[in-house]
Amino acid sequence: MHFPALSLFFLQSFAGVLSMFHVVPRVDKLHGLVFHALSRAPRRGAMRKIPKVKGEKNMNKVWAIVVLFALATVLTTPTFASSVHLKGDHSKPAFTDNGLTLTGSGELAGLGFGDVLVNLSAVANPTGTCGNPGGNTFQAPGQNPAPVTVTGSVSIPSSEVKNGNTPFSVTTNSPTTPIPGAPDCPNPSWTEIITDMSFTSAVITVQQPPGSVVLTVSCSFSPSDL
């Protein structure tokens, strides 16, 4: 039995009970009230809009902020170097022999956005002399010192990178001299001093950002090349 028919059945039964006590109800009025109430109730199968609670609205705002933040992060992620090379037709940088140090210079192209770190590592055959502390005299050592490696680096801030290009110049540190213990002199009490460096090879590495190598250039040369 459907709900409207069931309501009408109870309404008629209630009217019959009242008539037993000589009370004549306004059945038509009661019937109208019942159907008025039923007409305001949602019908079966009818869609009813459920208002959003405050917590759900706040959650929607949180998700909107998260999505916008993620989108902004993607759009503002800096572009790093992908095809760094030496600018122009030069496949190798220029080197200058400064006696005890080596300088490498050139211009980089294809850089991205970010600070740049250029490292230089060079190997050389040193020339040394042995000094006698007592006589204040110097003489050639019994044998030349073993090859040594010297390094240097230079940092280039991102503000100096223009359209992916920037010049660079990096110089190695000087070798340790006097050589501790004077291994190539007559005895350890002498002083062994490096007077010149004959560079044989060099490696330049470029990092952008620092810690991420984007270019390596290896060079070998004889003293006549410098």
Descriptive notes:
The protein is α+β, with helices and mostly antiparallel strands and 226 residues long. The protein has two domains: 1-48, no CATH class; 85-225, Immunoglobulin-like. 24% of the residues lie in helices and 33% in strands. It is built from three helices and nine strands. The chain has helices at residues 3-20, 27-40, 54-76, and strands at residues 85-86, 94-97, 102-109, 116-132, 137-139, 148-156, 166-171, 191-207, 213-220. Strands 4, 5, 6, 8 and 9 form a five-stranded antiparallel beta sheet that branches. α1 packs antiparallel against α2 (27-40). It is elongated and about 85 Å long.
Give structural attributes:
alpha+beta, 226 residues, 2 domains, Immunoglobulin-like, 3 helices, 4-stranded antiparallel beta sheet, 5-stranded antiparallel beta sheet, 9 strands, elongated
- Please outline the major beta sheet: 5 strands, antiparallel
Shape: elongated
Name of the CATH class of the largest domain: Mainly Beta
Number of DSSP E strands: 9
Task: Detail the poorly predicted runs.
Answer: 17-27, 33-38, 66-81
Q: Quote the CATH topology of the largest domain.
A: Immunoglobulin-like
Q: Count of helices? A: 3
Mean pLDDT: 76
CATH architecture of the largest domain: Sandwich
Tell me briefly what this model is:
The chain is α+β, with helices and mostly antiparallel strands and 226 residues long.
Write the topology of this structure.
Layout: H1 3-20, H2 27-40, H3 54-76, E1 85-86, E2 94-97, E3 102-109, E4 116-132, E5 137-139, E6 148-156, E7 166-171, E8 191-207, E9 213-220
